[in-house]
UniProtKB/TrEMBL annotation:
Residues 125-187 form the T-SNARE coiled-coil homology domain. It is found in: Golgi apparatus, trans-Golgi network membrane. Pfam families: STX6_10_61_N. InterPro entries: SNARE, Syntaxin-6/10/61_N, Syntaxin/epimorphin_CS, T_SNARE_dom. It is a single-pass type IV membrane protein. It comes from Smittium mucronatum. Belongs to the syntaxin family. GO terms for cellular component: organelle membrane; trans-Golgi network. This is t-SNARE affecting a late Golgi compartment protein 1. One of its GO terms (biological process) is Golgi vesicle transport.
Amino acid sequence: MNDPFEIVKEDVEQALEQSNDMMYDWDRLRKQSSSTKPNSELDYIKQDLYNIFNSVEQDLSDLQSTVDIARQNPQKFGLDSAKLAARQKFIDTSFDKMKTPAQQDSNNSTNHMIIDFAAQQQQQQIILEQQDEHMDSILGTVRNLRGIAGAMNTELDDQAILLDEVDTMVDGTQSRLASARRRVNDFLRKSQGTFPPFNIYL
């Protein structure tokens, strides 16, 4: 069974070698092209370099995690201290290779490429943070709407109970009026021989 570390290590080495070649091409095209005229090939190489650097950085971070885990129980993974040290050295060296262009003279155009790359990474991070804040705002609005809907449902339930109580009161009043009307009519019938007839309207 192939060691996953060695597989990823080989991918990182190939990517770094490819990035060096692309850096050379990017630097050459940058010097040849006019500063005021856009160069599509230059932009294409730049974007490819961004993608390579992002991929290598993620791969190295994953490799570092595996080394940290292996250090806790080397026997479990069949590794001794020498192998762990060699793996750590590869990770550190690879990170240094990515940083080396940034340590060159500030007038070097390759360094501008790295600065550009770092600026884009920072911009992407800002965009992600803004998206997170926007999502939090949306979730807050949804929670508020749920609260309002719950309050409205409670109010509607209260109003339904109140209407039921009013209906009950009206039914009781109508019943009492009907009873009073019957008593008055009974009284009138009994009194027809004594008092002149008249009508009662309720």
